[in-house]
Structure formats: C-alpha cells, structure tokens
C-alpha cells in the first residue's frame, strides 16, 4: 500500500503542476464525488451533468493509475487509492483558491464576478432586490447567486460571500450581523380573521419545514406545540411557505421581516398561549466573507450594498 500511495501522490502532484484547466477540473470532480458519494449530487454541486462527472472521474483515475471508487446501487464507495490521494487533492484545492485570491488582489476597480451564497427565501426576498442597487452603483460587477440551504466553504473558495443564520467561528472569516429578528406566527389577513383568537396552536393549519430544515429552531417549535396532523405542507423553501401563507393556506413561523415583504399579519392567540409564543425563535443573520478577500474592490462593493439594504430591512421592522 505504501508504494501505491506514493505513486498516487506523485500522480496528483504532476496534476497540480499541469497548466491545463481541465486537470484541476478532474481533481475538483474527484473531491465533490468523495464528499457526496453520489454522481448526481456531485453533478448538482458542480453545476454540470452526470456524464461530465463520470468522464472527469475516469480521466482522473487514468492519471492516478488506480480505480478511485466502487460504483454501486447506493452510490460511490472510495477505494484505498482514493483515500491515498485525498490529502494531496485537498491541498491542491486550497492552493487553487489561494491563487485565485492573490490574483484578484491586483484589481483596481469594483468589477468582475462576485459569488454569493444565500438560503433560497432570503435570496428571493432581500438579496435580489439589493442587487438592483448594486447594479446602479457598480455596473461592472456580475453576481453569481447560489440559492441553497447548503453551507458553502468560503475557505475553499466555494463562494466569495455568504449569508448565514449561524455565526461562523473560523479565524479565516470576517463577518457582520446584518439582521436580528424574532419569528412570528403569520398568515394572510383573511385566514387570520377566520381563525379569530387561537386557544390551541393545533386549531390552525400550519405550513412547516421538511427534513432539510428539521433541526431549525422554528421547525422544533412547531414539532413541540403543533399536532402533526395540523401541518398541511412541509418544504425547505421559504418562497413556497410565504406563497402558501399569503394565499391563506396556513400559518408560517418565520422571521418578522418576511411579514412586511408579503403583507402577512400575526395570528392572534389567547393569553394561555403566551408562554409558548414567547419561545418563538430569534434569528440572527450574518454576512460572511474570507478575510483575504474582504477588501477586494468588487467584494467590498457587494459587502457595502448588502449591509446597507439588509440594515434597512431590520430598521424598518424595528420601527413598524
């Protein structure tokens, strides 16, 4: 195994020294496949089709001179050869990200591509409107917006900026709190009138969260206080939850700024429910970037616009 590991590391080292972008793509595909253990998931992560992932993996296996994955009904199982090259592949990933940051450091004006990662509902309701202002101020900036509940790795260059509900702890990251909001039980004005004053949370139809957000504080509150039969929709997409609430389908438990954006109203409840209502989650939102990129003109410009516009959302709710 020692000889095979040495040969594998030498092969990936040769790949790192190659000038063709395709060689880096092979390594990038290998890392996605290793982390996700599924061709389809790796393809979605990379924004390519499955055939491209399969072709790149085959090419990388030819470079390494060994089979890297056993392909089965339940996905990909890394071989010993895959584990042997993993450390070198991750080192190449970090080097590639560092090279990109250092090359970008020479830019003089706010122009070029900035990649932002944000949860779907937040992106739809607040980030996209902010990009209108960004376009007016900095027409040379192009934004690539990834809307996903997945937490991207900024240290590996998966995005330039991200909006997160949990405060990161890495020393490589810089961050700023851009929103602090309490969640409310909200619905359409018509359904709120129909429900009247609730004496039991389960007396209302609820729009809840599926497995992707099952561990979120709002999902846990609903699980504790609302009968399962009263949850008439489950989804991880805030836009769907808000659309359902606005149409009068049910009640949602979401941060207060969403209410203003969709003209929802808070559901009235009896004083006997005050204690459980007092435990509605309070959410923070953090704008996060890599320390080495924060002062690049294009990244700084997007940072400035997002902090301005999200701050306005927060302050408007505080006054409302």
TrEMBL record:
Gene Ontology terms: biological process: DNA-templated transcription
Start and end residues of each HTH lysR-type domain: 24-79
Pfam families on file: HTH_1, LysR_substrate
Listed Gene3D superfamilies: 3.40.190.290, Winged helix-like DNA-binding domain superfamily/Winged helix DNA-binding domain (1.10.10.10)
Keyword tRNA processing in annotation: no
Entry keyword set: DNA-binding, Transcription, Transcription regulation
Single annotated GO MF: DNA-binding transcription factor activity
Family, as annotated: Belongs to the LysR transcriptional regulatory family.
Name recorded for this polypeptide: Transcriptional regulator, LysR family
Gene source species: Nannocystis exedens
Lineage: Bacteria, Pseudomonadati, Myxococcota, Polyangia, Nannocystales
